[in-house]
What does this fold into?
Amino acid sequence: MLQSLQIKNLALVESVRMEFQPGLNVVTGETGAGKSIIIGALNLLLGERADKTMVREGADQCSIEAVFQLTDHKEINRLLQDCGLPPCSDGLLILRRLLSASGNGRQYVNDSPATVQALKTIGELLVDLHGPHDHQSLLNPEFQLYLLDAFASDEKILSAYRAVFEEYHELSNRKAALLSDAKDPEREIDMLKFQVKELEAAALDENDEANILNEQKTLAHAERIIQLSSEIQQALYDADESAFNRLAAVQSAAGELARLMPGAAEWQNEIKSLAARIQELTREISAAAHKIESDSARLERLDNRIALYQKLKNKYGGSAADLAKMLSRFRERLLDLENRSERLALLDAEISRCRAKLDKSGKELGKLRQEAAVRLSKAVQKQLKDLAFAHSSFSVRFTAVEPRSSGMDQVELMFSPNKGETEKSLRQIASSGEMSRVMLALKTILASQDRIPLLVFDEIDENVGGQTAQVVGVKLEELAGYHQVICITHQPQVAARGRAHFAVSKKTVGERTASGVSMLAPEERVDEIARMLGGKNLTSVTLKHAREMLERK
It folds into this structure.
């Protein structure tokens, strides 16, 4: 969840800090108060293009910082690692972006410098913004396919298809490599033979390398190891004033003490154990030291072996384990080139077999998706009726495509808000309010499967009121049972459903205007809901109605 958002010197905001709650967070305020600045700040943190005009007039720079508390941060940590960024500490992810008045910008993830692209990639896993903004995953065909698959619950069938696709893809690549051989295949064959011979002669083994390094280190310091072992043995056991001999005198005293003092027998036994352990430890050290010999010839052989490992790793790249994999690939490539015609024929047969298997798996996946699309369309239309689209239509359009990792289908979500109008793809919908309500319908249906933790809705209640606004509020509250939701709203029916309520206001002090945000206490919420119901002039009727709305939620 988004734990906090801090904005400084962005547009009309001088300094604002918002502490969000789990569930539904609502943001209200009069038109022009600056509610859109919150969305703008989130957009900047999600990698949107920045402009120096966003910096508050008179300030040197603006800054936006968001702190996310993630219950499951494995996927984010993998992404951070791929981007060369530090992982989350105790599930905390900190995103920060700075923009100077001169136009220069910097961005940080967990206090480490990052790229704008990194912010954008991270943001796609964390936040879905729905409103008059560009960051809308619903317009992405791949995301639309993901939504359909999530609804169909076809992970097993999809995984089976992907396994066959990977096999088909690998076979196709091998054939392509054979067909696009170098101009001089004989020269490549000679080179491969040399490489295979060189790697085979080295008899590389990852464990062998580690063992050699350990033995080399021991032999290189053999004389010093033997000397130190001898000193330890003398101090522990062999010398007249050794620890063992001193303990012998202590044991005698402890024996007499045990006769004179109840409970001292336990101490005597512990001293005996210490003496026995010293004897045992001395034998272990002596045995290990006797195995070590200063063998210059053996050390030279080990040095040469390590040098060979290093030479081959520098030449071919990677570790000893990677070199073993390279040897396998070199052998396979050599076999392909030396028996090119036969290998092409075998590959064609394998590709044909695999393609038939892939087509069968792809059709099975497509059939499941088609069936799910019918159920999804009916479910979405039912939700849309509740959201004031009484005569809307919704469907999923399929287009067959060449096999790819996601299947052999391309899908397009189609929508018409009014009866008699031709359905259009979602990307052609002009109204942000319509788009947001379609997304709300989908998110409500798919709430339990969706992986994105934060949903932000802006203008979702545009052109709705009364009973429809009430339904929008209820659905947002239901959705907030699965995700954290932030909703900027003009409707009191929606605002009353919030677990946390923030109000945006605009003040003029002297010659400057600034927008501020405050989290409302219960009684302040009554006043704000009443304002939304009846304007600035609060009456006993609007106040009573506001209280009733908050109590009924």
Q: What stands out?
A: Residues 126 and 452 are 5 Å apart (CA to CA). Residues 206-327 form one domain. The longest strand covers residues 393-404. The chain has a mean pLDDT of 86.
